[in-house]
Amino acid sequence: MKKAVVLGGGIGGVEAAISLKKEGFDVELISDRDYVYIYPISIWIPTGEVSLSDVALPLHEVAKAHNFTFTKDKVVSISGKENKVVLENRGEKTDFDYLIIALGQTKLKHKGIENTLSICGSPEEALKIKKKLDELIEKGFGKIAFGFGGNPKAPDAVRGGPVFEVMFNVHNYLKKLHLRDKFDITFFAPMPKPGARLGETALKLMDKMFKKMNIKKITGKKIKEFEKDKVILEDDTKIEADLIAFTPAGDGHPVIKESDLPKTEAGFLLIDEGCQVLNHENIYAIGDSVAIEGPEWRAKQGHLAEVMGRITANNIAVKEGIKEGRIESYKRHINIMCLMDTGDGGALAYRSDTKALLIPLPIIGHWMKKAWGLYYKLSKLGKIPRLPGM
Ligand SMILES: Cc1cc2nc3c(=O)[nH]c(=O)nc-3n(C[C@H](O)[C@H](O)[C@H](O)COP(=O)(O)OP(=O)(O)OC[C@H]3O[C@@H](n4cnc5c(N)ncnc54)[C@H](O)[C@@H]3O)c2cc1C
Predict the structure, then answer these.
(1) Same domain for 312 and 374?
(2) Residues 203-232: what's their mean pLDDT?
(3) Cα of 175 from ligand 1 centre, angstroms
(4) How confident is the model at residue 97 (pLDDT cuts 50, 70, 90)?
């Protein structure tokens, strides 16, 4: 039986491991955390609606349910030429026929970034946002700045959705505590139209939401630096804030940047339509680690990482002659599909070549996202059947 090693136990890596096992491969998943951190539902950590354990799915249990091996270790280097991975604790690893890279991404480092906290960082960082918010609530008033940055070298790596979600959730949480009028909330972003990839209708709707929620908006000005309790923009505009919840745009993973594998200037892996790393027959890459090619509104998303995981398993199985079929392309699956949560409801954002929709879903939107979280956990543990395409 041929062996596939998957690096990274996030949304993409787990889907690849499950799918490769289904195709009949011997599968080992290696990750530095022993749980899948389910990012889409981590947005409720700051307001205390979920705890870390609600958002963490133990990888040992997923591995047991799908009969693959899980190894907790950190990847320190990958060599394409030598077909080798080096792990922090176990050293060199060459016992694989196929390697699937799903290590995710890191974030750009702005000057003074240590004065900010991101919902798209480590689980510990999300807990720090909660702690800071709790302190401000205890004090009874405060100023909060929410923002996200851009990466001209990787437009698909901008992550704005979760920032909007946490901001809207915090607004509604403060409202529920009858404290909203005691807090200033400001949103900032360097691009003139943040969220533009969702289309014009979505932008108009978001503008209405900002006004209704009394959220100040400063956009189209580059970020100069962050100081303690301050965001400084290119024209020296200063946004005072007790809490700066800022998410920089994504940047290539350091292990990939230092590897000999083909990558973009920003450090994202170059793959073909079938997710094979260019010029490397047995190395595949999926999810946030890769440079996605497609329309200018394309984005790195969890559902695309999952599709790439399934496509990779199919394509390797076809290549090995395990099954008949054709090599599939990830490109026809590029769309934006996001249930944007506001705490008291939500909106379904959808973007494809032909459509740009933002459908408001008052009340039910929130519960739909909760239901998705539950579905994700139970289906990955094999406790309920998978819905086709999900
Ligand atoms: C707050 C937030 C909310 C989001 N909401 C949505 C949403 O609603 N819908 C949607 O479609 N997408 C959403 N996304 C995007 C989605 O979560 C990502 O696109 C998806 O997680 C990418 O999957 P991945 O497997 O490529 O990377 P990740 O999920 O980031 O997984 C990478 C894995 O690699 C491991 N790893 C990293 N470095 C090493 C190393 N050196 N050695 C070993 N292991 C390592 C990490 O621990 C992690 O387990 C959201 C993202 C964030 C941050």
Answers:
(1) yes
(2) 96
(3) 31
(4) very high
CA distance linking residue 58 with residue 63, whole number of Å = 9
390/372 Cα distance (integer angstroms): 10
Give the domain range for residue 325: 3-105+252-334+369-380
Assess if residue 388 is contained within a domain.
Answer: no
Q: Say how many domains are in the chain.
A: 2
Of all protein residues, the one whose alpha carbon is nearest to atom 53 of ligand 1 is 120
What lines the ligand 1 site, CB under 6 Å? 8-13, 31-33, 39-40, 42-43, 74-75, 102-104, 119-120, 159, 161-162, 255, 287-289, 300-303, 305, 338
Query: Same domain, yes or no, for 263 and 209?
Result: no
Q: How far is the CA of 347 from the centre of ligand 1 (A)?
A: 22
Question: At CA 361, angle to CA 355 and CA 365, rounded to 5?
Answer: 110
Give the tens place of pLDDT for each residue, 297-326: 999 999 999 999 999 999 999 999 999 999
Strand partners, 107: 250
Atom of ligand 1 nearest to the CA of 300: 19
Question: Which position has the token pair 């505009």?
Answer: 237
Residue 45 in domain: yes
